[in-house]
Amino acid sequence: MIRLENVTKRYTTEVVALQDASFEVAKGEFVFLVGPSGSGKSTLLRLINRQERPEEGAVWVAGRNIVDMPSNRIPQLRRNIGNVFQDYKLLLNKTVFENIAFALEVIGKPKHVIEQQVPAVIDLVGLAGKEDRFPDQLSGGEQQRVSIARAFVNRPLILVADEPTGNLDPGTGEGIMRLLDRINGTGTTVVMATHDRRIVDAMRRRVIQLDRGVIVRDQARGVYQ
Amino acid sequence: MISRLRYLFRETGASIRRNPTLSVASVITAAVSLLIFGLTLIIQHGFDNLLAQWEGGVEMIVYVNAGAGEEQRLVIEEALGQQQNVTIEAWSYCDVSCSLADADRLFAGDPVTRGQLNELNIPTQYKVVPLDATQVEILRGLRDRYLELPNVYSVQLAEEQLDLISRLQGFVSTYTTGLWIALMVAASLLIWNTIRTAMFARRREIEVMKLVGATDWFIRVPFMLEGLLQGVAGGAVASIAMWFINGRWTAGVETFPANSGMTALVVVDGYEWRVSIIVIVFGAIIGTIGSGTAASKFLDV
């Protein structure tokens, strides 16, 4: 599903975010990216959804090398990748329903599809009954659930999550992880960057560890270390 | 398709509501520039009315008494024919209906005088194109000779009125054109800036839209529509102002003396409608250009 081949990403000649990174993620896998701040986790996620381009190497997503993908094809790529962020990136002037529907609306889905898919995903993330609330009327965990619902409503092949539990207390973070695990159970590949040792150790999924832009460990059913 | 249109209009409306001060400023600037543009066209048309008789290189007009018969006109045509290829390149006869059409434009601002002219009393005209328009003395000699012909009401030379009007037209045209071009650029830049501000205010939405796979065009179009609407609104305001100013000017000219030479300097022949459409279309164009360039340039907010 995702393959990186000798990928190097530099922001300046001195700042190397990723150095000769190579790995492959199979369809339906759940992968943790771990490492200290500045180790290149977020850059790696940004390379997968083509927010960044590497200086060297190839990034394959769903069978296509996206490094030289023409800009008019990128929206199509991104419709297959859901994004979850630490700061949720919700639109504060829209309700829960509208925030989730927005993701379908801007890719041109008709109203009847939106009316069918949005309530289903609201149920999935456990926010039934809160459709009409605005983000500032929700807890942090609930806001992250909305963010996950928005990322998943279009049933993407891949879901990338950048520190999704970073702003949440441990209990709420566990709830979010259960949700991501459930989404992974539907066949969606999940790649998640995290600092949260407890979660990684509890889940025992594949762990790719980065240190100063270099992959130093790639372990199936790994722990944080 | 319907959901896309609904989205388009909803987002455009939301964007305008979010930034009303800048939107109003853009509309006013567009309106002022388009008003000057429209008035330039109207003034040009007024001058064209003044010079209508002299189109096509005509330098001399021989007016024939109303009611002069074909045989009587043959005398004049024979005199003109004698000069064909000597001093005259060409001449043409402007019959009653042609002369009435000229009068419509010449006395556009003097309905009383125009009302007194009809098929029975309007002098018809021979319009003369000389071989060399710079030979003024030759033309003056011809005028003196033709004045002595029977049934010639009067003879007018272009040099007597054309020169001053042409210079005035050139002056007005140069400065008003420069002004409206400068103001249109200003209006377009202000719309550009309005759209840039609107995009900055909505940068979070744009970021989300891009991440969930919205195409650049899908993101861009509501902003372009916003700019287009501002341009069209500016054009509509300019049209209303132009009609008001033209109406006041026309009413004023009607009070001028008939021999003031200004009676043709009005536009009452429906040309204002064409100018209104042109002004609104130009408004749409500057709005679209301003917003389109901003929406393309600042999409990566």
Structure description:
- The complex is a heterodimer of chains A (225) and B (301).
- Chain A is α/β, with parallel strands linked by helices.
- Chain A has two domains: 1-79 and 186-225, Rossmann fold; 81-155, no CATH class.
- Helix content of chain A is 32%, strand content 27%.
- In chain A, helix 6 links the parallel strand 7 (158-162) and strand 8 (189-194).
- Chain A starts with a strand and ends in a 6-residue tail after the last strand.
- Chain B is built from ten helices and four strands.
- The model of chain B has no long low-confidence stretch (mean pLDDT 85).
- With 301 residues, chain B is α+β, with helices and mostly antiparallel strands.
- A four-stranded antiparallel beta sheet of chain B has the order 2-3-1-4.
- The longest helix of chain B has 40 residues, at 162-201.
- In chain B, 68% of the residues lie in helices and 8% in strands.
- The A-B interface holds A 49, 51, 71-72, 75-79, 83, 89, 91, 102-103, 105-111, 114, 150, 154 and B 2-4, 7, 204-205, 207-216, 218-219.
Helix-strand blueprint:
The complex is a heterodimer of chains A (225) and B (301).
Chain A (H helix, E strand, L loop, with lengths): L1 E9 L5 E10 L4 E5 L6 H8 L7 E6 L2 E2 L8 H5 L2 E5 L10 H10 L5 H14 L15 H13 L5 E5 L7 H16 L3 E6 L2 H7 L2 E6 L2 E6 L6
Parallel strand pairs in A: 3-8, 3-9, 6-7, 7-8
Antiparallel strand pairs in A: 1-2, 1-4, 4-5, 9-10
Helix pairs in contact in A: 3-4, 3-5, 4-5, 5-6
Chain B lengths: L1 H17 L1 H31 L9 E5 L5 H14 L4 E7 L1 H11 L4 H6 L7 E7 L5 H12 L4 E6 L4 H40 L1 H9 L4 H38 L17 H27 L4
Antiparallel strand pairs in B: 1-3, 1-4, 2-3
Helix pairs in contact in B: 1-9, 2-7, 2-9, 2-10, 7-9, 7-10, 9-10
